[in-house]
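[DERIVE STRUCTURE TOKENS]
===
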Amino acid sequence: MKKEEHAARLKGVRNGRTGPAISHLLFADDSIFFTRTDDTCVNALKSVLQIYSQGSGQKINLQKSSLYFGSHCPTEIKQKVMDSLNVHNESIHSSYLGMPTYVGQSKMNAFNFITEKVWKRVQGWSDRPLSRAGKEVMIKSVVQAIPTYIMSCFQLPDGICEKMRATVSNYWWGFEGGKKKMHWRSWAWMSTPKFLGGMGFRDMKIFNQAMLGRQCWRLITEPDSLCAKVLKGRYYPKSSFLDSGPTKSCSFTWRSLMHGKSLLECGILWRVGNGEDIRITKDKWVPDAPCHPIQPVGQMPDDLFSRGERY
């Protein structure tokens, strides 16, 4: 694949003008290839797959393979590529690696499977006589761990978080005669940390934002990662991640990251260092002040940086 890329016979897909060109991604036993639909790229990809099959002795199952085209790709181009690669399945799975591949207008429908998983897991314990301590361990180690992976990538709707909270709370207090027992304490108390007198259960909305904030921190501290390069090429090619923001055409994933970024900005600090990268008119100089940037009396350029010997 890399040899064909260097020879300019195979061109990957860029997400943004300055983003890296991606030709393939490998996940466990799955392989995803990205390329253009012109004859040169399609034939190069076909040649690579044939060479791999001959060299490894592993034949690619074309019946289990599928193609996914862009929304504006003409029908005749799609049919031409299908005939060339001998793959006639044009589809994309509704979920991949446990996460939805497409999130439409209805966020509740896209993430309803999480609440169903939580409910089925809790219902499987209904015939087990567990003590309070046993219930606490099962809830914290099993139930509340189910949405962790998805919460690190997407901002779940409030309705989904509320359904998970209700399932956990009802299971904790129990049922009697097919009806819910009295909830003697509020969920605010149950989600309070133990060292403050609560039970230490997770507040899903807060935990969701914390996981997204963690991803934002990785984009800041690991700018050379593939994920950071792809997002930078699409959403903040000429600025830093901290200066980026949501756009009208941004994806649901990017909006979710912006939700985590708002939490990150509440506690993030930066060091002056040698002062060469300080933006005099834009950076926040006084923390917790109503007016963070300075207001110069005279006219100053917006891209003015601090240079000790110059300014």
Notes: Residues 42 and 154 are 33 Å apart (CA to CA). The chain has four domains: 2-92, 99-202, 208-267, 271-311. The longest helix spans residues 39-56. Residues 307-311 have pLDDT under 50 and may be disordered.
